Amino acid sequence: MALRHAILAALLEGEASGYELSKRFDVSVANFWSATPQQLYRELERLQRDGLLAAHVVLQQRRPNKRMFAITDSGHRELRAFTAGPTRASAIRDELLVKLQAVDAGDSDAVTAAVTERLEQARGKLALYDRLRERLLAGQTEEQFLSSADRIGPYLTLMRGRSFERENLTWGQAVLKILAERDPTHVSSPPSELAGA
Amino acid sequence: MALRHAILAALLEGEASGYELSKRFDVSVANFWSATPQQLYRELERLQRDGLLAAHVVLQQRRPNKRMFAITDSGHRELRAFTAGPTRASAIRDELLVKLQAVDAGDSDAVTAAVTERLEQARGKLALYDRLRERLLAGQTEEQFLSSADRIGPYLTLMRGRSFERENLTWGQAVLKILAERDPTHVSSPPSELAGA
DNA sequence: ATTGGCATGTAACCAGTTACATGATTCC
DNA sequence: GGAATCATGTAACTGGTTACATGCCAAT
């Protein structure tokens, strides 16, 4: 029953079709909630059935018609009640870290490649988040934005995603260095200091 | 099919019963994979059935008997193959961030309380991770440990968990300040600078 | 001509969660 | 005496993933 609330929260940005919502999940919601298009379509059905969303069909000439979903009053009440309820602990499931846990019994080169790939992804996401941040700020300073904006929620979650990817970068780089030093084809390099402050 | 590999990776630390494994998941594996005891018991059954784990019953006098599970050769091969295969993107599902995304349409005080609670948890986990780190290092410097230890995987994942909780702390504190400034019962305080470097 | 984006869905399956159940022991 | 810990499970349900299917339009 938590995907519901993620969808409601995402629709605060404005009404959307299933397809548009899945794009929205890809770019901004993915920091804190992941869902496949199939999940979204199914849950949108239910949300509409339960009266938390209202749907209306938009006819398009050059594209297929789409069903736009908007939050109802009942949906707003539900979302508000959700923010007031107990918070479940976050579930993390990261295959890369499972591989790293097993690196000593696994294929070290393959794990190195996987970390490198993750690093690339982190760089890409960081760049995306920086662009989204610029768009949100719209020329204002952070201070100005936070005191004047209608909605600060999307900014706060974006900043969490941003710091997460920054950590992925620094951590991943340190891990690569350590794995390289462990490698048989050894070349010495200065210590990595993974522990931080 | 990924819980299997998380279990195999966890059993690299040594054989365990279902109960012990679930404790292990709570303290150290939870950074990167979460699973309930019921999931573990079911998957241990299957791993044994598929020959990746071998079980033997340990009779105890003052406690119930337990079934200890150990990785077989076949299990080791499977784990190695896993580290060499493609890596799926990590799935994050964090209710607290859903609440934050919806904070502008939600109960601001309740969200503040939830962030405060998360901060406490982060402090606790950080302290735990620091203790685990001390235990792993066993008096050595990080550099010494990394060049001499049999297994560095657990250390690398622990350090990721540690930096994650550190980020939770700094982010959560900034969010609390921002939410307080937004509150009707307003008291001015210096700007928070959430953006970082 | 074919790839890629827009737009929506069904069906089957697999993974994860919740509730419940049992029974002994140790600690307070 | 009661709570916490050790130890394992069943059953029912809910949530999530994968594969497949359709069809049109725009761009190359």
In spatial order, strands of the major sheet of chain A run 1-2
Shape of chain A: elongated
- The number of distinct β-strands of chain A equals 3
Average pLDDT metric of chain A = 92
- The fraction of residues assigned to DSSP E strands of chain A is 5-15%
Give helix % range of chain A: 55-70%
Q: Largest interface: which pair?
A: A-B, 80 and 80 residues
Q: Which residue ranges of chain A are poorly predicted, with pLDDT under 50 across at least 5 consecutive positions?
A: none
Please count the helical segments of chain A.
8
Structural class of chain A: mainly alpha
Q: Note the quaternary state here.
A: homodimer
Q: Radius of gyration of chain A over alpha carbons?
A: 21 Å
The end-to-end distance of chain A, rounded to whole angstroms, is 39 Å
- From N to C, what is the helix and strand string of chain A? HHHEEHEHHHH
Major beta sheet summary of chain A: 2 strands, antiparallel
SSE topology:
2 copies of one chain form a homodimer.
Chain A: H1 3-11, H2 18-27, H3 37-49, E1 53-58, E2 66-71, H4 73-84, E3 91-93, H5 95-101, H6 108-137, H7 142-148, H8 153-182
Antiparallel strand pairs in A: 1-2
Helix pairs in contact in A: 2-3, 6-8
Chain A binds a DNA duplex (28 and 28 nucleotides) through residues 1-3, 17-20, 35-39, 41-43, 60, 62-67, 91.
